[in-house]
Protein 1
Amino acid sequence: MKGRVAILAGGTGALGQSVTMRFLAEGAVTCVPFAVPAERDALSNRIEPAARTRLHFTEADVTDEASFGAFVKGVLDTHGRIDVLVNGVGGFAGGDLLSTSLAEWERLMSLNLTSAVIGCRAVLPAMTAAGAGRIVNIASRAVVPPLGGFIAYTVAKAGVITLTQALAREVERSITVNAVLPSTMDTPGNRAAMPDADRSEWVSTDAVAEVIAYLASERAGMISGAAIPV
């Protein structure tokens, strides 16, 4: 990915940090919107000094079209191109349909689905003009087939898969749109939430990042509209 410009929404999160580090290791210029300064600082401290010149942080709200649009404009003004978008923002909460308030439903839709819609809308004009681009959305293995108990999250992530498949049919063939569906990931948050769980089959964030990086590469130009479990 040397010389390519990537926007990594969610790039400071548990999975996002692995994605950011993988893209930097492969030579990409990585542009990361952030909302939590502590997460930005934690990621920055993990990056080798030689790679920090290719890592650019900007505070932005990925669930707000104006805020994220301004972020994308800044990337274009600075770098002149956008080659990759990874929509990795998300949030989880349990609850069945009756116990999930409408406010909580809308919050999870905004974090998991609307953020991906906003991200795609923001980068598509530049990618279409360039005749090339890679979009990778993060869904979840837990929603195929849908499970009960966390219905708002399930519906939102299922929407991400449908968004991916429909958008792949709408865009030019040189722009690919794919979704990655991780199973339970081995993150500090999941360890804290499930301290007694058997983690032997949990997937590492580095493994998920490897699949994302492949789909973002030039080699994956023949894949579009896929929902790939990891």
Protein 2
Amino acid sequence: MLAIQNLEVGYGQSKVLHDLSFNVGGEEILAIMGRNGMGKTTLLKSLIGILQSKSGSIKLDDHEVSKLPTHERVRSGIAYVPQGRMIFPMLTVTENILTGARGKIEDGTWEEIYSLFPILRDMRHRKGGNLSGGQQQQLAIARALVSNPKVLVLDEPTEGIQPSIIKDIARALKDIRQLRKLAIVVTEQVVSFMMDVCDRALVIERGRFVHEARRETLDAEKVKALLSV
């Protein structure tokens, strides 16, 4: 579903991502692990088009999207849940979700979102700024889903969230994959969350991948060691 080849991204003369290549299957959950400052957010911003790549290819469902602006990448099927959630605090839950839509939201989509995140139904008239961090994260995911993506991209969705809600988010991502039959790319530093949710993991260090394994063969202690260096 998503094929990245020889991707290089930087800020000005400073190169951050170095010749990265990886694929994501149509219904795969791929976790990209790494410490702060290693290139995770830069990678995701380059996939959605917030940052333009210096070179390389980004193919979504066999279509090259690396030269498209962000809104056209969203239209093509990439949805982004940014680090820090970035919801609109003065809009209601319903209004926040509507900002992610590319047209009328069907009744079935609303019901699907509420089945994934029941709290959003209960709080649909509440302002986004009055939600807890975990509730805002669920809202940000719901907002991304209404664009009907082929690939859902999430940047550190567990950041600043209590453990019980982290488990809810892990369960929701697996349910989303099953319901929507889409691919998910998630950056993360919490190894337990990654082991719970992903099919495969990559570890990034200074803009290069240094380790890759499927969940069933992944050495959690080795990943923890790489993240703590």
Protein 3
Amino acid sequence: METSRQPVARRYIYNGESHATERDMIMHVLDEFRCTEAFGAEYVPLWLATSDNEWVRGGLRVGGQREAVHARLMEERLRELGGVPRCTVPPEVRKRKLAFYGSTELKDRGKLRDEAAEIGDPVQALKVYTDVIDQIEEDRETKALLHWIIQDELTTIRWVMETSALLNR
């Protein structure tokens, strides 16, 4: 008796959400990751303007530029794939983060300490994105784009962790 095998439908997972196709997953991650990076590019200048440490200001300049470039690259790729940016930062998160990073009362060491605590384990913090990269088989351009953005993110995270440790001894 011969049995015919039906192809197993593959599911693509991003941040716990299942997508029917690789392209659907990619569109979702590009939009949300773009949104996060664009918001970073918005609040880093507030932190830079209130920074009380030259070393921190130097790092913030680099980090803020990276965030802006990442957001632009992901938006360009999203649009190339036929997508439209839709993600926005929730108003309550936006208000809280802008107040935090723009605060003149909280010094760099406190901002870095909180940032480092929120990140925790750098590999785990980026796992949602590395899991996506691992799933991409067809769209090699987006896979490479995300891979290199994650490398930049690891560098920024290392700066946060090292600078926080230095200032909070």
